[in-house]
Amino acid sequence: LSGLDPAQPYFQGTPILVRLDKSDAEFVDVIHTDSAPTIPYLGFGMSTAIGHLDFYPNGGEQMPGCGKNPVSQIVDLDGIWEGTRDFVACNHLRSYKYYSDSIIYPDGFLGYSCAAYDVFDTENCFPCPKEGCPNMGHFADKFKGKIKNDFVKLYLNTGEAKDFALWRYKVTVTLSGRSKVRGYVNVALYGSGGNTRQHQIIKGALQPDNTYTSFVDAEVNIGTVTKVKFLWNNNILNPTFPKLGAATITVQSGENG
């Protein structure tokens, strides 16, 4: 059974007899996309973990792309009817859109087991353990025989619009240069499966010989890394023309470490 953002009002905190529960089937997976409290946030979805696997994409409360202004959302790509409906319940409806996208991307939507979404951006929840990470959506049942804990909370990020699948990488950059500057560093990843756009790794003080780590949710599964493009820019016009490079760049795949 797949629960697509099961309803919160009148159901959250009730006996298992009247709501979705892991005892309802051999395998129950749940996608939570609108789990902010109903009052005052009008969250329609349940926040409690109730399945064998509970996925909280983007933290489970506010979905990227749902904060757009009403006009741009209502005349979205899907037409006025779907756009109007999405404006009213955009977060809630993301659950079925993620699910339908998951059919097209069997290797996408990996959920990382984590205590909470604010810990998700640390190295505590990366990479996937040796038994792998479950896929949110249609292929979640591939993980059926591997569940050890009572409730498993899983976190991941998605894109703002179709296609929603993203693939997570850890990028570590050690800078080289002569002097500290201010600015930002972008990295683009190239691989056997495709190339990414530029992703910002750090912004602010850039200190040569320092190592900086960031997580990149890439819009493509790059496969085997073939090349990494490093770009940096300083925020102000600097008459000394400082130079900065990368001594090393390490890319680690979340899927297989």
From TrEMBL:
Major site of localization recorded for this protein: other
Origin superkingdom: Eukaryota
Keywords: Cell projection, Cytoplasmic vesicle, Disulfide bond, Hydrolase, Lipid degradation, Lipid metabolism, Secreted
Organism in which the protein naturally occurs: Lophotis ruficrista
Stated family: Belongs to the AB hydrolase superfamily. Lipase family.
Ranges for domain PLAT: 167-257
GO biological process: lipid catabolic process
Family annotation (InterPro entries): AB_hydrolase_fold, Lipase, PLAT/LH2_dom, PLAT/LH2_dom_sf, TAG_lipase
PANTHER family referenced in this protein's UniProt entry, alphabetically: LIPASE, PANCREATIC LIPASE-RELATED PROTEIN 2
Entry EC number(s): 3.1.1.26
Gene Ontology molecular function terms on file: galactolipase activity; lipoprotein lipase activity
Subcellular location, record wording: Cell projection, Neuron projection; Secreted; Zymogen granule membrane
Membrane topology: Peripheral membrane protein
Single GO cellular component term: zymogen granule membrane
One Pfam family named in its UniProt record: PLAT
Protein name in UniProt: Pancreatic lipase-related protein 2
Pathway where this protein functions: Glycolipid metabolism; Glycerolipid metabolism; triacylglycerol degradation
The reaction(s) this protein catalyses: 1-(9Z-octadecenoyl)-glycerol + H2O = glycerol + (9Z)-octadecenoate + H(+); 1,2-didodecanoyl-3-O-[alpha-D-galactosyl-(1->6)-beta-D-galactosyl]-sn-glycerol + H2O = dodecanoyl-3-O-[alpha-D-galactosyl-(1->6)-beta-D-galactosyl]-sn-glycerol + dodecanoate + H(+); long chain 1,2-diacyl-3-O-[alpha-D-galactosyl-(1->6)-beta-D-galactosyl]-sn-glycerol + H2O = long chain acyl-3-O-[alpha-D-galactosyl-(1->6)-beta-D-galactosyl]-sn-glycerol + a fatty acid + H(+); 1,2-dioctanoyl-3-O-[alpha-D-galactosyl-(1->6)-beta-D-galactosyl]-sn-glycerol + H2O = octanoyl-3-O-[alpha-D-galactosyl-(1->6)-beta-D-galactosyl]-sn-glycerol + octanoate + H(+)
